[in-house]
Structures are given as structure tokens and as C-alpha cells.
Amino acid sequence: MRVAIIGSGIAGISLAYFLARSGIDVVVFEKRYPLYGASGRSSGGITLQFDKPEFVDLAKESLKIYDRVQSEVGFNFLYRHDGYIKVARNREDLEKLEKEVRVAKTKGVKAKIIEPEDVKEFVPDFNPDAIEGASYSEGGVIFPWPVIWGFAKGCKEMGVEIKKMSEVSEIIIEKGFVKGVKVNGEVYKADYVVNAAGAWSNEVSSLAGVGLDNRIIKEEVCVSESLKPYLDPYILDVSTGVYLSQSVRGEIVGGILGSEVEKPETSSTFEFLTKYAKRASELIPKLKGLTILRQWAGVYDVAKDEIPVVGLTSVSGFIQFNGLGKFGMCIAPALAKELAILIIRGENRKIEKFSPLRLKIHH
Amino acid sequence: MKSRKIVCRCEDITEEEIIHAIEEGYDDIESLKRYTGATTGACQGKGCLMHILRILSQKTGKSPEEIGITTQRPPVNPVPFYVLAEGEKE
After folding, report:
1. How far away is chain B from the Cα of A295, in angstroms, using its nearest Cα?
2. Which residues contact A134 (CB under 8 A, 6 or more apart)?
3. A293–B35: do the CB atoms touch at under 8 Å?
4. Average pLDDT over chain A, rounded to whole?
5. Residues A213, A304: contact at Cβ < 8 Å?
6. Where in chain A is the domain with CATH 3.50.50.60?
7. Bridge partners of A298?
8. For residue A362, pLDDT beyond 60
9. By residue range, what is the domain housing residue B26?
10. B78 and A287 in contact by Cβ < 8 A?
């Protein structure tokens, strides 16, 4: 059996890893270079607090996978589990956090609602007057770059070829069955083709003649100069979408949750910087003196119903693994593990609800 | 003591380390930047990008034009939060 995976982000690369570990012949096609897409532009926030219970299970499992894989491949993913704080600036948003905490607790995740004043326990310079309330839960921040390199290293050691600058131009289908892909004019035979192309998944899907109508979200991020360890937890302001955390390199990495765009594009805007700077320094006034070094943008895809698109399609051998939204780094490895089982053994144990066949796409 | 040729002062990276990364397969400029951290420190590449380009060109035999440079990202110089926040109304 031969599997061609399109995309070397966290979805594609973790799937390649699990398939190769079961002895499957895998090749990964990356249209630019690994980290070009959303995984390379992510701020690395890892939360176990979601409104959807199934996401909690996937995130818990993914953390276990990260922990195991980093020792298997001998690569430090730089996961710092100093907690994940969500703050709400109004009553309505705080109620959403209360719901998420209830969900987390039923899943055995340590999570609680805390008073504005209590945020200072975790972030001494936090301004409690800016918010209505907050939640604190397990989680933290991972560095997505070594995650991708680590999985890639493991893949290569098992014989997986990761081909960069290799955009798939054609998916070859005969009588409803996938036969391979065409890349840079060359044909590669494959029994399965997996669409793990993130923000470019709609385009890849159309190569197979399979409808996919994921929304594309563009999100901007920036980093500051480096500081000594200062900010322990990852902070997300659910009312403004502003988030920030400190990387292991000492930079304050922050952004604002993205909004929909028509096509994948990654231009940076000045509007983002001013909005981020204002909102972030309302939460932690001492940030005012810090300087911003660099800004960038990333794009990811999300299904219309905000549920990942993972599994078999109407074309035999063409598989979707996309639509993970902003939670790719949190949940992709667990989905990849289950998808590998589906591809190898035909068993669909835990990912039926993510089936692409649920989508009603009009061609 | 062995002599060390520092090519990226912000992140303290030697020429030898850059060569090692290229040999590991991080042989395009964007991957090399991410793997070594060169051009991502305080200078944002102002001091090191041309060194990295030279080494990559020498190792791969590609011309600097063919290799290209990393995406140049704003701001040109570091800007404090308080200055930026002033630009935001309300």
C-alpha cells in the first residue's frame, strides 16, 4: 500500500508518521517548504478547554502523542505546560467560559473559573479592571517548528520522503479510484491520496473532483524583543480575540483571532499592530514599553460547521484531513492516529462524526 | 581554543552551525532561517542575512539570486507597544 499525503503541516506530517510506523509506504508533497502553512505561523497555544467535548478528548490524546513522539524521535518540542487562561470582558463571554469549564471537568481536565483579581496569581502584572472574569485550565504553549521537524525527522528515519517545492498539479483517478498524483510533471503512483493542505484544501479537493467548501481564515501574529521568563500561562482574551504568551526564546508572541478571507494570502497590516498593542497593554499595562520586532500572517481552513473534515470521500482512495480550524496544533496528532487506523485497517473507531460525507456540498 | 566564526550575533550562531543545518537538509533560505533562528533575533536579519545567503550559495552552488532572501517583515525597526497603541482610536 502506498499513501501520498499533500501538505506537511501538523496534520499531514503526523499522519505520515503513524502510517510509516505501521510499515506503510508514504510520500509527502509540500508545495513550498515545511512550515510555510499554518503550522509554521501558529503561536503554539495548547488548550484542553473547548465547548465541544470531543475536542477535549482529541487534545488530551494529542498531548500524550507529543510527549511520546518527542522521545521516540529525540527532538524537544519545547512544550511549556504553565496553564491556559481565558479572560472575558463581559458577562456573556464569561458564561461561555463557564460552559467550557463544565465540559472540561466532565472530561477530567483541571479547569476552574477565577475572579479577575485571581489572574494576578498567575500573571502578577495583570490588570483585573480590564475584565469581567476568567478561566484557568491545563494547557500551555508548544513551539510548532520543532514539532514539525521532529515528526519529519522520525518520518525520514522510517523512509518517508518529504518532497518540498512539490505542488500537486493533478490527482489521477480511474473509474472512481485514486491511482496517483502528478507533481512537477512526474507521476507518482498511490493507492490513497490524503488532502492535508490546510488553507489550500479546497483547491486540492477540486483536483479530485470532490466538493469541499471550507472557509479560509487569515490571522495575524507578531513577536516582541526577548525578555527573561516573565509570562507563565498562555492568555486568550475571548472578547477581543487577542492572545499572547512567552516563547522559550523569551519573545512575547501574540496575535488576534483571525477572520474570513476569500483566498489564502498572508500580507501583514498596520491595523493589526495598533489594535493588538492597545488591547494587549490593557490586559498587561507593563507591556507598553516593550518593542515589537516582527509581524506576519497565516491562513487556516475551517469547515462551515466548525468540525474537522476527516475521512473517506465519494472518490475511493481520496481522503480528507483538513478543516481543523485554529485547533490544528491541539488536536491533529490524535486525529492522525485514528485516520491511520482507518486507512490501514478500515476501522473507524472514533472519527465517524468528522466524516466528509456529512457535508452537503453543491457542485 | 577552536576559532569560531560568528555569522549571527543576536542568536550566537557560527558559520559551522549554518553549514551543519544545510547538510541536515535545511537547504532553502526559509527553512534555514527557521531551523537555526538566524535572521529572527534583535537585528531581524540586518546583520546576518547576507552571511547566511553567502554560505548557502557556497554550499549549494546556487546563485544568490536563485536562492533569494527571506520574506522581509514589518516593522523595519522595533516599535514600542505604547507608540502603536496610540494609533488605535477609542
Report:
1. 6
2. A85, A86, A87, A88, A97, A113, A114, A115, A116, A118, A119
3. no
4. 97
5. yes
6. 2-62+145-214+304-358
7. A219
8. no
9. 6-86
10. no
Buried b (16+ CB within 10 A) or exposed e, A312-328: bbebebbbbbbbbbbbb
A204 at interface of B, judged by CB pairs closer than 8 A: no
Class at the top of the CATH hierarchy for domain A84-137+215-302:
alpha beta
Q: Amino acid letter at A241? A: G
**Is B34 in contact with A35 (Cβ distance < 8 A)?**
yes
- Grid cell at residue A40: 509554521
For A288-305, how does the pLDDT look when each residue is reduced to its tens digit (9 = 90+)? 999 999 999 999 999 999
ipTM over 0.90: yes
Residue B48 domain-assigned (yes or no): yes
**CATH code reported for the domain at A2-62+145-214+304-358:** 3.50.50.60
Judged by CB atoms closer than 8 Å, whether chains meet at A278 and B88 is answered as yes
Residue B1 resides in a domain:
no
Task: Please say whether the beta carbons of A251 and A225 come within 8 A.
Answer: yes
B36 domain residue, yes or no = yes
- B interface with A, Cβ–Cβ < 8 A, is 28, 30-31, 34-35, 37, 40, 42, 44, 71, 73-75, 78-88
* Domain tally, chain B: 1
- Residue B35 counted as domain residue: yes
Q: Is the pLDDT confidence value at A363 over 60?
A: no
Residue to substitute from A270, A273, A287, interface B, most B β-carbons within 10 A? A273
Instruction: Report CB contact under 8 Å: B40, A291.
Output: no
- Cα–Cα distance, A323 to A335 (Å, whole number): 12
> pLDDT at residue A360 above 80?
no
B36: closest CA of chain A, how far (Å): 11
The CATH number given to whatever domain includes residue B30 is 1.10.10.1100
Residues of chain A with CATH 3.30.9.10: 84-137+215-302
First to last CA, chain A: 31
Chain A residue numbers touching B74 (CB-CB < 8 A): 268, 270, 273, 294-295
- Cα–Cα distance between A34 and A346 in angstroms, integer? 29
Q: Do B31 and A294 touch (CB under 8 A)?
A: no
| Contact flag B82-A289 (C-beta cutoff 8 Å) | yes
Gyration radius (Cα) of chain B, Å: 16
A299: nearest Cα among A196, A198, A195: A198
- Whether the CB of A158 is below 8 Å from some CB of chain B: the reply is no
Each residue's pLDDT tens digit, A186-242? 999 999 999 999 999 999 999 999 999 999 999 999 999 999 999 999 999 999 999
Do residues A234 and A141 touch, judged by C-beta distance below 8 A? yes
